[in-house]
Write a structure and sequence with these properties.
- The N and C termini lie far apart (38 Å).
- A hairpin with an 8-residue loop joins strand 1 and strand 2.
- This protein has a single domain, classed as 2-Layer Sandwich (TATA-Binding Protein).
- The chain has 3 helices and 4 strands; from the N terminus they run ββββααα.
- It is an alpha+beta fold and 91 residues long.
- Helices cover 41% and strands 14% of the residues.
């Protein structure tokens, strides 16, 4: 991914184990790990997260194997868990 999208990515494995992907057309930043897991960050509202993911998914999908997609939890569940955690931590 870094080789193909270097201008939108930062990857310094000696400092952080994930690739940081900041797409111009997105309101979110993705942290992509070798395990195939992706952390969606920076979105302030649930809507920002959904729209940001919708914008970057076509690009990210090119680099994800079918096996990794099958193992993942659906995005709505992930966002719901993240939102609940954020609300609980702000109390």
């Amino acid at each position: 991914m870094y080789d193909a999208l270097g201008s939108d990515c930062a990857w310094q494995p000696n400092m952080f184990p994930g690739l940081v992907f900041r797409a111009d057309n997105s309101t979110v930043v993705l942290l992509c790990f070798n395990s195939g897991k992706i952390l969606i960050t920076v979105g302030k509202l649930e809507h920002d997260i959904f729209m940001g993911w919708k914008n970057v998914w076509p690009t990210v999908a090119k680099f994800i194997s079918e096996k990794q997609v099958i193992k993942s939890i659906d995005l709505a569940s992930q966002v719901r868990l993240l939102t609940e955690a954020l609300v609980d931590s702000s109390k």
